[in-house]
Predict the 3D structure of the following.
Amino acid sequence: MKDLRLILAALLLLLPLPALGQEGLTALARALPGGLTLAQSGPGLTLDLRLSQPVPYRLRLVDGPPRLVVDFREVDFAALRGEDPLAAAGSPAAVQALRHGPLQPGWSRLVLELDGPHGIDSAELRTDAATGRARLQVALSPVPQAEFTARSVPEGALFEGLPATGLPAAPPRRPGDGPLIVVLDPGHGGIDPGAEREGLRESDLMLTFGRELREALRRAGGFEVVMTRDADAFVSLEGRIRIAREARADVFLSLHADALPDGGATGATIYTLADEATDAAAAALAERHDRADLLAGVDLTAQDDLIANVLMSIARTETTPRTDALADQLVATIRANGLRLHRRPRQAAGFSVLKAPDIPSILLEVGFMSSPRDLADLQDAEWRAAMARSVVEALQRWAAEEAASSALRRR
Ligand SMILES: [Zn+2]
């Protein structure tokens, strides 16, 4: 018996526990110690889960036996090991069993087995703005079998009964909200140079432009700037999103100057996220960025999971109009500053780096290295200053617009 315990202890040591130094790298939400409680509440019960950060989730009811299934993307439950909320005083009798753990790469699951049919009365994930921690609260109460059958999904059905819950979108800016937090993302870097022409690398050009834009924003005032990289270093696409989320970004701006194989593309182009690319060139561009990430050793297959797309699209409905408004402002200010725009300046494609569902995210191709004119512009400090000015002005106008519409909504 003692031997068995020793073996178990040894096995636990082999499990990939989140090392302190790696916490920032994994961006994994963690259940907090003692953070899972179940309580009786009238005829029903509540589930309360405290997490280190908000995370997309989905609730489903499944029959045979009746269960509540909560899927997360993604939660590390290691801190709850050895804890048994069912043994706690006041634990609801309706809960027969409780399980939680990893499901598949990128996904975790929590299952409550119930003694009879229940319905979901409410579900809410709230984030504490001060600590960044999140709390999921789900209330259940008994319902007749027929109602449960109507509300539950067959085992294995992934998309039916999808509730309108998910990652809460960041609220629009209000007057007096403090500096606008802008995350600048110089594209590529390290082992991924991006486009290359005439001995120049997109990664270097965008680091230079990113630093200059950071200076322009700081001089303008009212902005706090965070860079996803400030060196010739590789940062994964998911890592860039993580940096934006950790910075509590109001806006994410990815900077690029790619080369398009057909050679005809010239002028600044503003890309937003969409499942359907505006054209084949935009689709190929997004694909090439993902492939560069894969070649650098980062697996994006989990990211492209269909379930993830469904979840993300829910939170995104709030963010999309705000992103579109910023994209329109960028087109307007770049044009007003007399800089060349692409003949179709507003485009869309499935860029992985734009997939933070709660942060307005834009990919700005300041020009294309495949265009000789653009390549000359990119090396011209005056041109870059005018482009930086355009971005500053667009962000100022957008922030003012957001504050005004937020004031209107509150009336
Ligand atoms: Zn690029």
About this structure: The domain at 180-410 is CATH 3.40.630.40 (Aminopeptidase). The mean pLDDT is 81. Residues 16 and 342 are 48 Å apart (CA to CA). The chain is about 35% helix and 30% strand.
